[in-house]
Amino acid sequence: MSSVITRQDEILKLLRNMGTVHIHDLAALFHASLDTIRRDLRQLEDEGQLRRIHGGAVLPNKPSETYEERARDLQPERTAIAQKTARDLIPDDAVVFFDSGTTICEVARHLKPSFRGTVITVNPMIAVELAAHPNARVIMLGGTLLKNDMVVCGPTTIDEIRKYNADLALLGTCALHPESGLSTSHPDERASKAAMISQSAEIIAVTTADKLETSLPFRVCDIDAISHLVTGRKLSAGYLKNYAKRGMNVVQA
Known about the structure:
Layout: H1 3-18, E1 20-22, H2 23-30, H3 34-46, E2 51-53, E3 56-58, H4 67-72, H5 75-88, E4 95-98, H6 102-109, E5 118-121, H7 124-129, E6 137-140, E7 144-146, E8 151-153, H8 155-161, E9 166-172, E10 175-177, E11 181-184, H9 187-198, E12 200-207, E13 218-221, E14 228-231, H10 237-244, E15 249-252
Parallel strand pairs: 4-5, 4-9, 5-6, 9-12, 12-14, 14-15
Antiparallel strand pairs: 1-3, 2-3, 7-8, 10-11, 11-13
Helix pairs in contact: 2-3, 5-6, 8-9
């Protein structure tokens, strides 16, 4: 087996484990030039094995995945993000919007027993998860259910969101880019996220590393509207500097 094939196989193993790879990290790991790594990534993208982004690569998009299938992807990273967010960023007496998304549901699963605040959610899976929590007050918002995403949205949802003033909005992150901000693939979900942002004092975006440096058609907000970014992979400082320099508190689990 050639060294090129071996190196590319190792790149794919890293990518499946971490969700994102950075060209400078790969060059150092394989003692290869940046041009060599770029050629590897181009070839792997042509084969449909990854998607290149600025400075690296992520796993290819799989829009047909169900909610349950997405929840199984990158599970160790999701768990680390959830534990860090629940432990360090959610005060025990806070009023918090819990958005849609598998990582947000994981945060609910790790919410501290001492939490005695209020969770307002658009995700029925979160309401079910927190039904057994000893102290949390749970408000499930109404609306039209997007079954593949397990989220309610639409005019009813937005009207209900506007009834509350929250301390935090915990946003699921479909795509986050330092220039184009937070974006999503569904216009109704974009409107719900924007409403939660407008009704909250602070915004926390939680995301696995594969969602960084990406964008989708429906823009939710600028990057500087987000107070905290929590991500899981131990990315290089250079990879995250464009987020931190916009004033975000970047937290790595």
